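Translate structure to sequence.
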């Protein structure tokens, strides 16, 4: 596949760097875009550059935001006593769909993974501790993924947070083990939040 015109090859290469897009898909998307009406292709290009330009990380919880703070941190109706810890901003979207939590969130931007060299220092844990110190947090809900990295992260945080005298809970099982929160259906995820349990210290 080295015989494409240069701009086509660049497009295929860039698409192929996206997560979950293999070489075949990259070619298919590239040719779809080449065949598409100019305004359709330009709309996609604009959506990407707009998102990169306008979207930043919330300085409080590390969710995606359009300003300094995300919509959830700005929402005064939220229960400031409940803080739900997740790995990625997309997990917030999944949890919000369940409508079970009325608290706020804290995004770690990853999970502990010795294999990938991700240690607690790489995650937003220092920031989490600062929030617990400065805000009126009574319960921390550990909603990391039900896989090895997520469980390791939840255990690490539980050991760190229990001595602070706050309630530390973990979302219940019932979620597919090894899975990702974002792929769980709303009912399963809703039950997992409802059935959250205090973590043993
Ligand atoms: Zn926020």
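Result:
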């Amino acid at each position: 596949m080295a015989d494409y015109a240069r701009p086509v090859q660049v497009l295929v290469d860039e698409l192929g760097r996206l997560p979950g897009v293999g070489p075949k898909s990259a070619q298919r998307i590239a040719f779809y875009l080449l065949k598409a009406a100019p305004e359709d292709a330009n709309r996609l290009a604009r959506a990407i550059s707009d998102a990169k330009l306008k979207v930043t990380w919330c300085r409080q919880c590390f969710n995606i935001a359009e300003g300094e703070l995300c919509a959830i941190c700005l929402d005064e109706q939220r229960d400031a006593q409940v803080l739900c810890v997740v790995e990625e901003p997309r997990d917030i979207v999944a949890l919000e769909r369940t409508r079970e939590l009325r608290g706020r969130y804290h995004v770690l931007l990853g999970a502990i993974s010795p294999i990938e060299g991700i240690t607690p220092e790489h995650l937003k844990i220092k920031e989490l501790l600062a929030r617990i110190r400065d805000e009126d947090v009574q319960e921390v809900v550990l909603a990391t993924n039900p896989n090895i990295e997520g469980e390791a992260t939840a255990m690490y945080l539980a050991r760190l947070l229990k001595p602070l005298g706050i309630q530390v809970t973990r979302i219940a099982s019932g979620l597919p083990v090894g899975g990702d929160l974002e792929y769980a259906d709303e009912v399963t995820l809703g039950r997992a939040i409802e059935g959250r349990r205090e973590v043993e210290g």
